[in-house]
Amino acid sequence: MATFTRRDWRGGEHIPREGGFIAVTNHLSYFDPIALGHFLHEQGRAVRFLAKASLFDIPVVGRFLRSAGQIPVHREKRTAGDALKEACQAVDRGECVVVYPEGTITRDPDLWPMVGKTGAVRIALRTGCEIVPIAQWGAQDVLLPYAKIPRLLPRKTMRMQAGPAFDLSAYRDVPFTPSLLKKATNELMDVLTRMVAGLRHESPPAVRFDPGKTGLPSIGNPYKRRA
Fold first, then answer.
1. Alpha-carbon distance 20 to 90, whole Å?
2. Ramachandran angles phi, psi of 165, nearest 5°
3. pLDDT band of 137, cuts 50, 70, 90
4. CA distances from 146 to 28, 75, 103, 149, 174 (A)
5. What are the counts of helices (DSSP H) followed by strands (DSSP E) for the chain?
6. pLDDT tens digits, residue range 82-135?
7. How far apart are CA 144 and CA 150, in angstroms?
8. Closest CA to 99 of 80, 78, 117
């Protein structure tokens, strides 16, 4: 990373130096976990990602993910809850767990954060830990969304902005309901989107992209199909 990228990092003081917490971030390409891992590593934190289970079936990649202690998520299966349970256990042990609330690389045509899923909020409310939002921009210049061949030169700038812990005080010590979890998640995504807008020096769209309402499938490369 030091050789092939430049870095514009901000907000490192918001990363807890010890204790378990959830880091949430926007998802731009297959390269951004490396960029985010670099940022968090330099803040003194080892990282555990929630990653889709299919990645663990790829030769070499799967072995690397397992050896690095990453957490497989079996989406749309009965065992999907096991990932949240393992993430809660990791947080209770004092680890940093990264959650992509969008669940996949953004399908928004302009790469804005999409509608979020409730997993990060569920983990935080169950464990009592903090959620630290981290906006990122630049990984898509190294590796386009869903692409597999990187463009390392000329060197690209990885922009990271960590913000203060998301305020969940209004949602603690009250019964879990789907509407409560969704409301908290929407607020979290609003915070993250504003942070991404700050990195991009642009205004986000008025309505967040929802792939479930567009007819796009849950997997695959929508950009390739559009081309």
1. 7
2. -55, 135
3. very high
4. 9, 18, 14, 10, 39
5. 7, 7
6. 888 999 999 999 999 999 999 889 999 999 999 999 999 999 999 999 999 999
7. 8
8. 117
Backbone φ/ψ region at 19: left (φ over 0), alpha (ψ -120 to 50), beta: left
Sheet bearing 5-10, strands edge to edge: 5-10, 156-162, 130-137, 21-25, 96-99, 47-52, 71-73
Question: What's the pTM value of the predicted model, to 2 decimals?
Answer: 0.89
**One-letter amino acid identity for 163?**
G
Locate 104 and state its tokens.
């996949």
CA–CA dist 183, 178 (Å, integer): 9
Q: What percent of the chain has pLDDT over 70?
A: 90
Q: Which of 48, 22, 209, 222 is nearest to 116 (CA)?
A: 209
227 vs 90: CA distance, rounded Å: 41
Contact between 93 and 127 under an 8 Å Cβ cutoff? The reply is: no
Which helix (H) or strand (E) segment is 8 a member of? strand 5-10
pLDDT tens readout for residues 144-183: 998 889 999 999 999 999 999 999 999 998 988 999 999 9
Token pair 């990791």 is at which residue?
A: 90
Structure tokens at 21: 């917490």
DSSP track, 166-185: P--GGGTTS---HHHHHHHH
* Mean pLDDT, rounded, for 4-25: 97
